[in-house]
Write a structure and sequence with these properties.
The chain is of the alpha/beta class. It has one domain: Alpha-Beta Complex (Spore Coat Polysaccharide Biosynthesis Protein SpsA, Chain A), CATH 3.90.550. Helices cover 32% and strands 20% of the residues. It is built from eleven helices and eleven strands. Helix 4 links the parallel strand 2 and strand 3. The longest helix is centred in the N-terminal third of the chain and has 11 residues. The protein starts with 7 loop residues before the first strand and ends in a 7-residue tail after the last helix.
Length: 273
Amino acid sequence: MSDSSITSAVILARGLGKRMRKADETASLDQSQARAADAGMKGMIPIGRPFLDYLISALADAGIERICIVIGPEHDAVVAHYTKECIPERVEVAFAIQQQPLGTADAVLAAEQFCGANPFLVLNSDNYYPPESLQALRREVPPAIAGFARSALISNGNVPPDRVTRFGALTIDDEGYLVRIVPRAGELPGASGEEVYASMNCWSFDARIFDACKNIDMSPRGELELPRAVQLAIDTMGMRFKVVKLNLPVLDMSTRGDIESVTKKLKAVNVRL
């Protein structure tokens, strides 16, 4: 394995947060958490400080120096936080505007100017990835995907067994490269008992991914989805995505019910921006 010297990352924070907006009377939220949840801005939900701070700190710990946060034109609060209220010292933070919430592939395209010809990481704003996982992905020659063991997501993360199948399962060839991501409702590899590795939308890319993102069709859900761009790149562009297998947890902040468990898991994390 050689160090690819990836120093840039793109955080996808444009989503509408439909699951987070959904009411949940069982979730115990304070007023500031409830306001952020009502707005669907999962990355800005306060866990002592905005959840996104934890992710940026983890990226800095992993060796990332430049971060682009993809947001919508209405997300002034995110810009204000990182340019006025809490200016990072360890990383340079920029912003890219995705005008319409057309999907994750379209969000990556919004960051094309920021990335240029340099390799970069891509990750969600509503997941906390351990710095060790980001560092391992950063050191792999791109393109690559972080494959998280489902057993670790359940035992050490905050993902219950009945929800872990929501994350696409990776089909991996004998050389350790991605063949496809099994859709959520698709057949599940690993039925015979072997470990199943899941996609948590954590990638390293080179500039070729932009062409793939520009050439996909809308998914049945009406979105331009990054996994479809990756599959197109595999099938027609000769791109091979190394799977970085990780027995590490990810904290998922998808719904109001996740906030309490994420808060407990992050309690001991020291955030340094």
